[in-house]
Amino acid sequence: MMRFKGQVAHKFAESPLLQMRLPLWRSRLMALLILGSFGVLIGRAFYLQTLNNDFLQEKGESRYRRDIEISASRGRIADRHGDVLAISTPMKSIWAIPPATTLTPVQARQLAALLETDVKQLTRKLDTDKTFVFLRRQIPPAVADQVAALKLPGIGQDKEYRRFYPTGEMTAHMVGFTGVDDKGLEGVELAFHRQLLGQPGSRSVIKDRRGQIVEDVGSIKPPQDGKEIRLALDSKIQYLAYSHLKQAIADNNAKAGGVVVVDVRTGEILALANWPTYNPNNREGLSGSQLRNRAVTDTFEPGSTLKPFTIALGIEAGKVRSDTIINCAPGRLTIGNATISDAHPHGALSVAEVIQKSSNVGAAKIAAMLPSQKMWQMFDDVGFGQVPRLGFPGEVSGRVRPWKNWRPIEQATMAYGHGISVSLIQLARAYTAFARDGDVLPLSLTQVESSTPSGMAVFSPKTAREVRSMLEMAVLPGGTAPKAQIPGYRVAGKTGTAHKLVGGRYANKYVSSFVGFAPASDPRLIVAVMIDEPGAGKHYGGDVAAPVFASVMGSSLRTLGIAPDVPLVVAQSPKAPTPKARL
């Protein structure tokens, strides 16, 4: 340090300019704040680690503890006798955590062989940024055990269920099917999905960093299996409907068809069959045509099967009686610039013979006596133009135009089933009005608890019984459907033959139908048959659909043990009623 003469030497640190004088209270305050902070930290640590350690415990467990879902078994679907139509069988799913999965070439080949895939496809699934992938779903437990025996890193498995349908294509459209995630996609499986699904359970496990389960640490919630659905369907009657329909489609070289069998007393659907159909256990190559539940989702012009409703309304309104004479000559009726024709010209016919001979002219003349609003209301009351409300997916309402827009020709054609569209299930339900005492029953897919359900009154009991007698005449010799006769049973029913609309125009293609019930003395079953586009040289409902009705109805009555109501001889046509009036 240099020193000049006459100057006093000072150390640098002792310079008065650098001296800093702080108040004593500030230093004490700082000390208290620091001590307070340490106290808060110590208190917080004591609280978390001693008084309330749930938070840290939860955070710690989240690193290694997992809740694994335990699948619930989907509820069974059974017929009215308890025969199984759908059941879940235990299976396994194989999954992987790609970041933790390292396989040697030998291990990859072994795993690919067990999963029935190739090594390239397996490698492609594992070569991903995802943290979880399914390698194969719904494999047999025996195969899953072989995969587990390989002890591959990052590969795990879970229990799941696969749906099995013992009756296969016979009940496919009624029962439906589920997807790989056990979700209902068609039929009863979709309609009753919530009841069938059940509630999954869960269990707590400890997993290592590779996702492998190291230890079970207890069950949290056991699974609740789904509820069993007991259908009204009778498997024996369903088989009869399915097999006879299938044979009829082949014999008539037809495009499609459907059959519905209904219990008159309860409204239960005992059978519902369609063709074409599919095997729900193997849905590879499934087409939309096979999937369509035609009895519920498809509509068609019912043709002459609607004539009894027009005539019942005429009787109910007091316009005609069964013996009232209608002049149907010369077999044609012109309304405006349109002409209605009968398939076979007739002269004077009683109202009963209008049904027996299936006269379009006679039905149109009776409709002309009725207010359009009353006719529309009757159609509405029997369920036409309304969704059946069965709970089935894809139900349709059909088409009945508002009565205010009807022209005279439209009312005339609707009298014999043209210009109106219905589904087969709607047609079967509407005929409960004649099979019963004028009331229409709601239909049910499941068993009805009440043995005597109430319906909606549409016609009086007297009118219903009168039309029932007319429908018996249609099945006897001289009627349009003698092929619907069943030895030992009185049968009542009506044929229907209608051109198909193609591109807005009637084409040379037909829908043939028949709806009837038996025994006519005390009706028990309704059978509705529809054959779409028969192509073997016959297209009338009496030739194509009536024989299917006879086969299904006869076999079903014998299956149920319904006693015959006539001797085992071919029924003869009754004497025509004596004319009372001429219109």
Automatic annotation (TrEMBL):
Coiled coil: none
SUPFAM superfamilies: beta-lactamase/transpeptidase-like, Penicillin binding protein dimerisation domain
Predominant location category: membrane
Keywords: Carboxypeptidase, Cell cycle, Cell division, Cell inner membrane, Cell membrane, Cell shape, Cell wall biogenesis/degradation, Hydrolase, Membrane, Peptidoglycan synthesis, Protease, Septation, Transmembrane, Transmembrane helix
A Pfam family it matches: Transpeptidase
Associated pathway: Cell wall biogenesis; peptidoglycan biosynthesis
Entries under InterPro entries matching the protein: Beta-lactam/transpept, Beta-lactam/transpept-like, FtsI_transpept, PBP_dimer, PBP_dimer_sf, PCN-bd_Tpept
Domain Penicillin-binding protein transpeptidase, residue spans: 257-553
Assigned EC number: 3.4.16.4
Ranges for domain Penicillin-binding protein dimerisation: 70-216
Subcellular location: Membrane
Catalytic residues (UniProt): 304
Keyword field contains Cell cycle: yes
The reaction(s) this protein catalyses: Preferential cleavage: (Ac)2-L-Lys-D-Ala-|-D-Ala. Also transpeptidation of peptidyl-alanyl moieties that are N-acyl substituents of D-alanine
Signal sequence segment: none
The family this protein is said to belong to: Belongs to the transpeptidase family. FtsI subfamily.
HAMAP family xrefs: FtsI_transpept
Protein task: Catalyzes cross-linking of the peptidoglycan cell wall at the division septum.
PANTHER family per record: PEPTIDOGLYCAN D,D-TRANSPEPTIDASE, PEPTIDOGLYCAN D,D-TRANSPEPTIDASE FTSI
Name this protein carries in UniProt: Peptidoglycan D,D-transpeptidase FtsI
Organism: Candidatus Accumulibacter contiguus
